[in-house]
Amino acid sequence: MHVVGTQVIPEQGGRAGFTVEFVGEGGEIVSVSLRNDACRSLNRMNAVERAKEVMMELATTETTVLENGEAPEGQPNMRRSARFNKDTDEMERQLDEGLEDSFPASDPVSVTASTIPTDRAKKH
Question: What predicted TM-score, i.e. pTM, was given to this entire model?
């Protein structure tokens, strides 16, 4: 993958962490979500380097998934996504959680109008 762009997206203003997206020239996107620690040492400046470290760890980790969908003992446990499993209840739960996390930005816009009368009277 030839990276042509990198985006750093703060989660809750960076307090919760960052999502780093690496964009390839073929339109592929690799996202790495990083949670911030108690010291909040993760910031916009070091998030890309930390995401690269995570991807290197992932690239050097041997993974095998058994037919029942579980990993052999001693290997990282891999889970299929709710979308892959067509688990609509889990997808709805994740959607609700995402909407709650984005509150109040997820509320629809409302229109208001003022009806304050003025004391201007037309004189004929």
Answer: 0.51
Question: What is the rounded CA–CA span in Å between residue 116 and residue 109?
Answer: 22
The β-bridge partners of 33 are: 19
> Which residues lie closer than 8 Å to 2 by C-beta, 6 or more apart?
24, 25, 26
pLDDT digits 0-9 by tens, 25-72: 998 999 999 998 878 888 888 999 999 999 998 888 776 655 555 666
Structure tokens at 32: 């790495």
E-strand ranges in 15-112 read 17-24, 29-35
* Edge-first strand listing for the sheet containing 3-11: 3-11, 17-24, 29-35
Map tokens 């003025």 to a residue.
118
